[in-house]
Amino acid sequence: MKRQASRRKQRAYALKFLYADEFLETGEDDLKFRELVETIDTESIPYTMKIVVGVRRIKADLDEIINRYSTNWKIDRISRVDLNVLRIALYELKEERDLPPSVAINEAIELAKKYSNVDSNRFINGILDNYYKKELKGVTR
Fold first, then answer.
1. pTM of the complete model beyond 0.70
2. Which residues, 6 or more positions from 15, have their beta carbon under 8 angstroms from its beta carbon?
3. Burial class (CB in 10 A: 0-12, 13-18, 19+), 51
4. CB contact at 8 A, 20 and 36
5. What is the pLDDT of residues 34-66, one digit of tens each?
6. CA angle centred on 31, ends 25 and 36, rounded to 5°
7. Domains in the chain, ordered, with CATH?
8. Is there a contact between 55 and 88 (Cβ–Cβ < 8 Å)?
């Protein structure tokens, strides 16, 4: 029996796709996009693509949340890695009702620690924690 790829690994793949999107402007039918899909293991494709498609679908809403909660930082000043880590976590917080908020936030912090600079995890935690406390805490999931 094949072991399901870890969600952490799938989030990392999604981060790579969304980061590449910043420069390649790919769509699901684009050859570059299909080539990216071919680079990941089969078990990772469903959740990875769910995140990528979901983030793309509500990207404007996610960016508005980021702008609202990132004091002194506008989106154009946030690194592309941090921005996409935030988008993934906010997507999961908003759309993945079966995922505990603490997991979405912690996974974002871990992605930032691995793929961004030393201070990014605190910046990301601050935005996500404020969003959760002000908009989601007490909301039935």
1. yes
2. 81, 84, 85, 88, 111, 115
3. buried
4. yes
5. 666 677 888 888 899 999 999 999 999 999 999
6. 75
7. 7-136 (1.10.940.10)
8. yes
